[in-house]
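User: Show me a protein chain along with its predicted structure.
Assistant: Here is one chain, sequence first, then structure tokens.
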Amino acid sequence: QVQLVESGGGLVQAGGSLRLSCAASGRTFSGYGRGWFRQAPGKEREFVAAISWGGGATTYADSVKGRFTISRDNAKNTVYLQMNSLKPEDTAVYYCASAPSIATMRNPAYWGQGTQVTVSS
């Protein structure tokens, strides 16, 4: 079985930064992409960022471009989301995901249980 576990969420003031981590345990598949989604209260889950297996390709939602950076360390089976210049609108539960490729991230094969990020002014 594959398990994804997020960490690094918390409460931060607007303009601050947080770094989320997601570690994978169990079997992992060569070539799989990794990504992040989020869901705010009363809203649908939305895509945030994704990264290819080799790390050479990344994609971001327009709302976070220039502020968030996704990266991965395959030796540690971990993907990261560095979040800078946080805004109250970034408040959400953030979910780690894995998909067969970065192109298929809209339908992840695996999900983490989520970590809460709260941004206040």
